[in-house]
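README: folding subset

This subset contains proteins for which both the sequence and a predicted structure token string are available. Records are stored as plain text. Below is the entry for Polysaccharide deacetylase family protein (196 residues), shown exactly as it appears on disk.
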Amino acid sequence: MPKRRWNFSDTEQSIYLTFDDGPIPEVTPWVLDCLKEYQAKATFFCIGNNIEKHPELFSRIIEEGHSVGNHTQNHLNAWKTKTELYLTNIQYAQETFYHHKSFTKLFRPPYGRLKRKQEEVLLAKGFDIIMWSVLSKDYNQKVTPEQCLKNIVENLVSGDIVVMHDSKKAQKNLMYSLPKMLEHFSKEGYVFKKIS
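--- output ---
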């Protein structure tokens, strides 16, 4: 795997949906129901602190056949955090994952930011750093739900990694765009895959 994974070169029409910042009861169950309706698999980059608050949701993600990845314990910005503290926070999240019977080596840095030294240590520890090739901007309050959907539909090609958020901030845009996007690409013959 390359240093940072931005997409996949699949032979079949595939989309890799990812959700950051959960799990939370206000949004994550709805996302899971929506994915189930379209027989879609996805990857959830979870915040350790949210796993501790909502272990039943984390268990449901795994039980329903999705992948999970580490998104730090407290959603730290790598550029604004000392390397040692940042890596300790990731390790703390990793222990939270272990405690809940998940042994993932997938990692996505919050805000997509990572210092070179942090990246080197994570790669040396065997993490796969997963980025994205399509950004929905569902978290952005200035982006309309229609624009959020357009950001995905007009930019996506097979093998792309799409980033969305199962968070309160993204809820309005997500609830509009996710079902429509799943419907659109399912009709086009795409398969929604998890990253493993």
